[in-house]
Specification:
Elements (H helix, E strand, L loop, with lengths): L1 H20 L3 H13 L3 E3 L5 E3 L6 H23 L3 H15 L5 E4 L2 E4 L1
Antiparallel strand pairs: 1-2, 3-4
Helix pairs in contact: 2-3, 3-4
Length: 114
Amino acid sequence: MKRLIQMFALVLAFGISASVLAMGLDEAKQKLDSVKQQGLVGETPTGYLEVVRAEGQAKEVVEAINSARRDEYKRIAEKHNIPVTQVETVAGKKAIEKTPSGQYVQMGGKWVKK
């Protein structure tokens, strides 16, 4: 029983520390331009960001931004009664079009500097 309590406490502590370490959306938004300009993160045709080079906080920025995008795409799809994939595709196309030159976009499954 004591062992079980210790395991539960360890799992609980890890869960709390992981949530504290997770990057918030506001912080991710502040860092997004920087990680894109550094070539660490790029836009994809699916409407989400992906890590181009796993350095710094690229992964954390991608996770936070993509979570917010996923929620927004779902909200839009439900509002217009269309599939989420349709919203993702339109958003991906727009994001790639708006990406400034010198930043990465995914084309045909490969990263290309726009």
